[in-house]
Design brief:
449 residues; alpha/beta; 7-stranded mixed sheet
Amino acid sequence: MNELEKLLSDFDPIKRKNALIKLISDTDISKIPTQNNVNMHFHSFFSFNSEGWSPSRIAWEAKKVGLFSVGIVDFDVIDGMDEFIDAAELLSLRASVGVETRSFFAKFANFEMDSPGEPGVNYVMGVGFTQHFPDESVQAKKLTDYRENAKKRNLNLIKRINEKLKDIALSYEEDVIPLTPSGNATERHIITAYGNKALKKLGDKAFSYLSEILERKSDEIKNIFYSSRPGFDELLRSKLVKKGGIGYLQPSKETFPPMDEFLQWVKSCGAIPTEAWLDGTTNGEALGLKYIEASKAEGAMAINIIPDRNWNIKDSQTQKIKLAKLKEIVDAANTLNMPIFIGTEMNKSGQPLYDDLDCNALRPFKQTFIRGASIAIGHSILARFAKLPYSADATDNIFKSTEEKNDFYEKVGKLPPLNKKISENLSKFNPDEIFAKIADSAKKGCWNI
């Protein structure tokens, strides 16, 4: 099994698919009990996963632990969408696909939000992508623009670092791109590449070379590298690309796309425009309800939270403050009838596979978080088969209120997970017929097709 699981993250998609099929044939997955925990925010290796996991590996691991639902969210691409949906159906797993990017929130240009130290910069997402668009379409062109702009930022970052670290200067094409299966490199890939290049060119002398930059003794750096490569990469990242680092450049409104523009693009793709929230402690997020209302005015229809940041904290006083902030944002979202999607990104080492919603800190929010995940899944089903995404204006003609819409999408999301047979049956009908059949199934709590 271990060898097959490793193949799930091979860069060859055929090997990944064959490995998954073999694992399923060798395992009675029907006996795996489903638990009421979710992770709707895995990054896959199409942007950066700390374990190098592909969409197929993420789906497999989620099934192994019996997650109620799972979602992938990659930066600036939906390259893993088809693979993830296919893997989820093979495994009978509730699944959604998202995109994340950094944007500029003009109305909060003087406030820090979820990118501390960078006023105006705001992480935003689209949740529940279900289709690709023709190359000539506005949707496809915009996605290409986001990806190309990210590449441009990467190249400029490398140029700035190379000027300071000439002995281990990188080639983007030769050193960075091979670390990702579809050419969508992130700054974390760049950091890994610098670590690799240092060791390749300088051997053990690399640690003394980096000593001044990392502000650590060479022996200490060497120990960190060999005992925890992810820890070494995080240290290197902090000194190369984060605020104060030698490659850092303070972003401006020209650096990232306008927030409202990105959220409108998400809506045009039939996905759910989503505000990403950090922990409530920056001066922008500290505004609580007012901040979320401002995000909603920009086009956000939902909120993404990584609860681990607010409760999994050793210092009890800090934990108390951040849990209060978490409650504040959950209350704000519920007041505005905005679904909440949660997850642990797994884009750096040490993050848990999922949040334990039965722990004392998160139990009060469990139903809200399960409801949000269910809405995302319901949306993904209705968008894909009935052409009725959660974000569509047409929903205003079907539901009397956002609360009623949320109730319906939640019921659809709580139906038994799609599998190949259900998917094929749904595909036989036109969207209106499918909507009626899904609505009837949601009322009965089981698929009736």
